[in-house]
Amino acid sequence: MTNKMDKMKWSSVFVELVLLLVKSVYYIFQSIYYTFVPLPEKSLADDIVLITGTGHGIGKCLAMQFADVSAKVVCVDINEQSNAETAKEINAKWKGKAFAYTCDVSTLEKVRELGEKVKNEVGTVTILVNNAGIMPCKPLEAHNEATIKKIFDINVFAHFWMLDTFLPGMKALNKGHLVFLSSMAGIMGLKNLVPYCASKFAVRGLAEAMMEECKADGFTNLKFTTIFPYMVDTGLCQKPIIRFPSLLPLVTPESTAREIISAVKKNILEHSIPSPLLIVNNILRCYPHKMALDFKDFMGGGVDAHDD
User: Is 196 labeled as catalytic in the residue annotation?
Assistant: First the structure.
């Protein structure tokens, strides 16, 4: 009896293995196909998009461009004046498309208050873009305890508080899209950005684990996108080091926002800006570590230390 059960068990494992191999081949050919054929794009016209950090930079550009594709936009920023200006600009072009809320997203209680207001005044958020972040550029020894805590409060813990507040509504609808702004500094370590790199590595892990948890719980209609931008010209990066500026120039907030929205429309899981960077990194990770480091040193890139 035991031998028979063992044979059935191994037969089941063999069938699973064959199925895994067949699916793997299918996914490889599918990936090759979509290298040459554009992925289908979903409409965002019926979505309510909440974006943090909309007072300037990438967040403001995202708000403008999401409104341009007919989504309702919930603008959230700690700076009341600049955030209100973003919403005003949007509503001047697309009346009634933008709603401005002032909130310190690093505080759970404030985010929960925001959640109640948004739900009552706008509706259930279906796309959440965790964009707000800070990037002090200095050696680790130059950071004090308060600065490091602030980096993690805004760059990491705010993601948790936003998920705690807005994910249940998406689960109730079994519909939604969660967008996490990481960074290429969440893929590789960089001088003068040690706490920032750590925070962006954390965002990458959070996004991946959250996706697995939702999938295991049966919420298969929830989509996830993690974005890894190169240095973006938003003012955070005041002293960039770029060895080949014609090859890898600073990225504009406008083009970054366009690529993020395109990734959301196509349900892309991970996307770097520019897009080849993530592919190059994944390839180099398959080779000896010293080779990858030498290639990184050859390309150069990073930031010089500067005051906040």
Answer: yes
Of 27, 33, 101, 196, which one is the catalytic site residue?
196
Question: CA-CA distance, 153 to 259, in Å (whole number)?
Answer: 27
Expressed in angstroms, the distance from the first to the final Cα of the chain is 72
Q: How far apart are CA 186 and CA 183, in angstroms?
A: 5
Buried-exposed string 124-138: b where 16+ CB fall within 10 A, e elsewhere? ebbbbbbbbbbbbbb
Contact 290, 268 (CB under 8 A): no
Please give the chain's pLDDT, 308 residues, in tens. 566 666 667 778 888 888 989 999 888 888 888 878 888 899 999 899 999 999 999 999 999 999 999 899 999 999 999 999 999 999 999 887 899 999 999 999 999 999 999 999 999 999 999 999 999 999 999 999 999 999 999 999 999 999 999 999 999 999 999 999 999 999 999 999 999 999 999 999 999 999 999 999 999 999 999 999 998 888 777 787 888 888 888 899 999 999 999 999 999 999 999 999 998 888 888 889 888 888 888 888 788 777 76
Length of the chain in terms of residues written: 308
Nearest to 233 by CA among 247, 262, 258, 254: 254
CA distance linking residue 237 with residue 133, whole number of Å: 12
Is residue 127 left, alpha or beta, with left meaning phi > 0 and alpha meaning psi from -120 to 50? beta
Specify whether the CB–CB gap between 191 and 238 falls below 8 A: no
- The set of residues, in sequence order, having a beta carbon less than 8 Å from that of 152 and lying 6+ positions away, is 195, 198, 199, 202
- 40 prior amide bond cis, ω within 30: no
